[in-house]
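Task 17 of the worksheet. Students: predict the tertiary structure of the chain below and write it out as structure tokens. Keep your answer in the requested format; marks are given for formatting as well as content.
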Amino acid sequence: MIESFDEKKIRIITYSIPTIIIFILAAIIPITPYSKIIWVHIPFHSAIEATGAVVALILSALLLTSKNEYPQDCFKVITATALIAMGVLDLFHSVAIPGQTFVWLHSIATFGGGLLFSLVWFPKRFFCNSLKIPIYCLIFSGCFAFLSILYPEKTPVMLQGNDFSSAAAALNLIGGFGFFSGSAWFFRNYYHSANTKHILFANLCLLFGVSAVIFDFSAVWDTEWWIWHTTRLIAYFVALLSIFAIYKNIEKQKENIFNELEDALKNIKVLKGFLPICASCKNIRDDKGYWQQIESYIRDHSEAEFSHGICPECAEKLYPDLKSGRSGT
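Model answer:
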């Protein structure tokens, strides 16, 4: 069913409600007493980041495994690549000791994820048929994160006291604009295709972008710091649940089509094997041993119907006078 323009607008607004609420919340909190609350809880933070990372990797696996089944969705390769980069870097970030490397891994995950999501604007031929890109990204991200933890002194300064440095702010801001760019592409394509997956990833990018922007106005362990962490986790889970719902619906449609096809095949009658037929009268013997006229037998065992007429040779044998009368005339 083709959606109207108004239906598309309603769907976009509905999917965007979580992003709008979070954005308003982030804008209001700085002017309230809650902005001064500091809550240091490393295990809880690690749990949030690790959960988000695992969900990102599961989501990327779902996208790549469905690529061949739905080859027209070329955005899946670059989207999966972005999620792999973010998932791997955030996983290392979740186990890193709070400090420079801790912030560096998150910032580079946001920067890399935003940059990769913005590449959906590139022509399809660059990404559509290459599964090497996600594999290379997985290897590179893992090595990069490992080396960052091994040689923390080589990474840029990310913290100045309890505040983020200009380098950290810049990485997150650039990543945020990358996410907004990717979101714009998905919204634009939703208008052309009405593909639910497009609006899903449009809002996923939107949530990531808002999270990156909130980062620049937060400090380590403050209220807004926890808000953007929660925002990213919500984005991952919304995307994962939506993807499961979409593919469950697709599988249900496939099952319905299969059942309809199976029912149709049951109604098709096909004659097979050897048919015992009388050499003289041409009657056919059925499975019960009874002899039937060939017309009756075929009518009972197929969808064929008969209409009777006389061929020229039989007409000459049965009605010779009719032919001679015509000749005389």
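Marker's comment: Residues 265-329 form one domain. The beta strands are 159-160, 163-164, 284-285, 291-292.
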